[in-house]
Amino acid sequence: MKRSTRLIAAIGFALAAAPVFAQPIKIAGLVELSGTGATSGTNFDNGAKLAAKEINAAGGILGRQIDYTSGDTQSNPAVSKALAQKAIDDGAYVVMGPVFSGSILVSMEETRRAGVPNFTGGEAASITQKGNPYIFRTSFTQAAAMPKVARYIKNGLKAQSVDIMWVNNDFGKGGRDMIVKALAAEGVKVGADISTDPGQVDFSSAVLKAKQSGGDALFVYTNEEESARALRELRKQGYAKPIIGETTLTGQKVIELAGEAANGAIAHVGLTADAPIDTVRKFDKAFQQAYGTRSDHNGIKGYTAMYFIKVMTERIGKVDGKAFAAAMHGAKMTVKDNPGVLMDVTFDQHGDLDRESFLTKVVNGKQVVVETLPPLGAK
Amino acid sequence: MNARVHLLALAAALAALAIVALYLKRSEVYLLTLWAVYVMATMGLNLTAGYAGQMSLGQAAFFGIGAYLAAILLKLGWPFLAVLPVAALVCFVVGLALGFPALRVQHHYLAFATLGFNVLVYLAMRNEEQITGGTFGISGIPRPTFLGIDLGGHVAYWYWTLGSLVVLGGILWWLLRSPWGRAFAALRDNPIRAESLGVNITAYTLLAFAIGAAFAGVGGVYYASLVEFIEPGPFHFSTSLMMLLAVIVGGSGKFYGPALGTAIVILLPEFLRGSSTPWLKFMQVWYLAVFGIAVVALMIWLPGGLLSIRERLDRKGGPQ
Amino acid sequence: MNELIQLIVSGTATGAIYALAALGFTLLWQASGTINFAQGDFVMLPAFTMLFCMIAGAPLWLAFLATCVAAMLVLGVGFKKVIVDPLIRHGVIPLVIATLGVSMALKTIVRAGYSAEAHQFPAIFPAGQFTIAGVNVSWADLGTLVLAAVIVIALQTFVTRTLTGRAMQAVAQNTDAARVLGIDAKRMVLYTFLINAILAVVTALLITPTYLAKFDMGDSIGLKAFFAAIIGGFNQTRGALLGGVLIGVLENLVGFYWSPAYKEGVALMLFLVVILWRPEGLLGKVEERKV
Hints:
The complex is a heterotrimer of chains A (379), B (320) and C (291).
Chain A: H1 3-22, E1 25-31, H2 38-57, E2 66-72, H3 77-89, E3 94-96, H4 101-114, E4 118-120, E5 135-137, H5 142-156, E6 161-167, H6 170-186, E7 189-196, H7 204-213, E8 217-221, H8 224-236, E9 243-246, H9 252-258, E10 266-269, H10 278-291, H11 297-316, H12 321-328, E11 332-333, E12 345-347, E13 353-354, E14 357-363, E15 366-373
Parallel strand pairs in A: 1-2, 1-3, 3-4, 4-5, 6-7, 6-8, 8-9, 9-10
Antiparallel strand pairs in A: 10-14, 11-12, 12-13, 14-15
Helix pairs in contact in A: 2-11, 3-4, 5-6, 8-9, 11-12
Chain B: H1 3-23, H2 26-51, H3 59-75, H4 80-105, H5 109-127, H6 129-132, E1 138-139, E2 145-146, E3 149-150, H7 154-177, H8 179-189, H9 191-196, H10 201-227, E4 229-230, H11 237-251, H12 257-274, H13 278-301, H14 309-317
Antiparallel strand pairs in B: 1-4, 2-3
Chain C: H1 2-32, H2 39-55, H3 60-87, H4 92-113, E1 129-132, E2 135-138, H5 139-161, H6 163-173, H7 175-180, H8 185-211, H9 217-232, H10 237-257, H11 263-277
Antiparallel strand pairs in C: 1-2
Helix pairs in contact in C: 1-5, 1-6, 1-8, 1-9, 1-10, 2-3, 2-4, 2-8, 2-9, 3-8, 5-6, 6-8, 9-10, 9-11, 10-11
């Protein structure tokens, strides 16, 4: 090759490549920064921001920087839908969030129509049952988590009957339906079935109902603040039986709000900053350094989702939403690919994920992992 | 402003709204449509709050009733144009049933009764799962076709909504010009004189309230079809408050007051949210604080709302 | 039977807190014709002020006293001078709208300036409970009841036994007549606003340990106070007490015997029934419309 041609080729390459390298990859966050989902959304957003910062500092994705911007859904589905449209108008490569199941069920119709991959923090089973090829989870579904809880209630606590206190929103109702099913499969009787309001402040009659019912244990499935209020009321009324939850009950925010009343609560969690795993410890430290508080499970969801994007995009070798979505189904990502995914994880054809999970207990105001449970797929 | 200038200005504004949609992004057209839908409801509220001088704190409940009726009936395959009168009629009748006892007793009790009604309706939406889908809501609400034209696209639906808004505005205009409406204006200007002339204040107020409710019901139908998904959240009593504030800020009793007020309440915050200019970013977070303080200031210096500024200036200029 | 008594006791305790907030509501109405839609946020703001004082290192009692002073200045004098005085001559509706604006502004300021999350607030009464004749009563409920009762009795004594108190009553009943008698009506109205501010701080102290300090915590308590005041009778101080306790107890009974899902709803049903059947409230007097 002649020198001049080589030169022209080099210039041509530089010209062609320059805009690509210079242009950041747009990733849009639709998160609950206000309204009832503020705690979850803020954590999710912070996790995603932290991961984006780390990835950018380490050279970005395929040499391109991540441009992550987040919008506030106000925990409102109609606003989520508008924000999803805006993200697509702005040319987002991947959409992150929302966390609330009610919101994602609406906004994911927009990302689906546009063929943009969408990670969600939602845990309602129905999200991935609609045949949407662009939706991916960042945590367990209720359908996967509740059987683990029911098994523990039967074998770990040896409970014959259990009372259920749940919050009447899409999250709580979905979880309640799943746990009832899972308990029936284990042969555990359901005693009082107590519904509470989102944002409910006074739990006195709900707790009294649980006390009078006389089940061997109480399963509490509400959002963070309500969990804290319920725990406080349970303590106030001197409830002495085991209190079990799923994910939220032993979360950081709940412990902080419930104070001493949180001690003794047990919960199955898919993700926790207290997991006895090196990658998680490192994440925990970085998160605390960045935000001054510890991350809850939603922070880990946002953080790992950003790394899922990095790992998968580099695996397919291009920034292409449709190819990304196709490759995600059935994908396995390990800590060896990138420590940022924190734990080995597999995705199935619906967009559901599977990995290890933990049984935790609150001891002296701290969440402690008592047991590590294997992934469902690895029986 | 004389009638011809008025009509020309209105036509120009409508043409601008129609044309601009062709150049806007999908999400921006969605927001415009959302604005039009809310204006339908606030226009009705203006009848109650502005012309009849009654505070209604339950407009979102009627809006929600319309939306749920639409969701259920449209999914059953009813045509859109058949759903509209049903929603309007149901809200009208419910409005009469609620307003009659409340207005019978005392002046400001309509505000209390509507507030309670809104909270109850909201609870029913959330808890009566068989009918309303509970907190999961109702999804997959279809958009209409009109004369064989599919209105599913965002621009097409915007034209459909804008056209409907104009028709509704026309109906309201006609109502206010009718003998009934004139009696009404007399009532607003001087209730004691109107009463002595044989105008039945309670009957007129009640009718205004029920018609206002019907407008909200119609707005709800458009809302359900626009978002294609409904759940109880948007029909919370706080939406009623925002609607009332929109009417008051725009100018209660002014025909275009709701359109202006709704733009300030619905469009402005969305515009701020999309901006990246530093001071506008600051406003995103503080918007409602500034808005709240602005409402207080407005009540102190311009209780008639923004559109009353001209009269206010005239009055200042003239002898007091 | 025991559970019924238990429900009534704890319902009365919750209701007593509603009653305190409702009391301020009716006092303002009687003295100045103000319907304050920001009443709930008047409870939220002191909760955060106390929280700030405690973060700064003050013990709870000092935080409470400091907040009382601040509340009297801002929610008492400030509210009256800046918002009520210039607006009251426009009539009830502009004032109501303005308080809605205040409510919105206060919530947003706390949310944007501090945080949208809930914050823990120390309980002033010990946890746990004791048993009396087979009925479990929690210390917190008992403490709340005693404190609320002390405040109500103190207020009642002040109003009926002192010269200032009687003058306030006179102004509330008939401002013009009171003025003729040489009472400084303006000053009396100001006192009412100060009392309302202190009641808000006490309500915050009692309710925040359960509600948690959050920017929108006032929505619920404000609405309850509003309902309680109307149910009992907007123009009667005793009415607010009855309304508050009635709501608290009924909520508990419905939540237990029927469904917690409609707990909020039944207070509203009661409210709707009352305004239809006895619009002046259970204990209220029929009021001549002021033109």
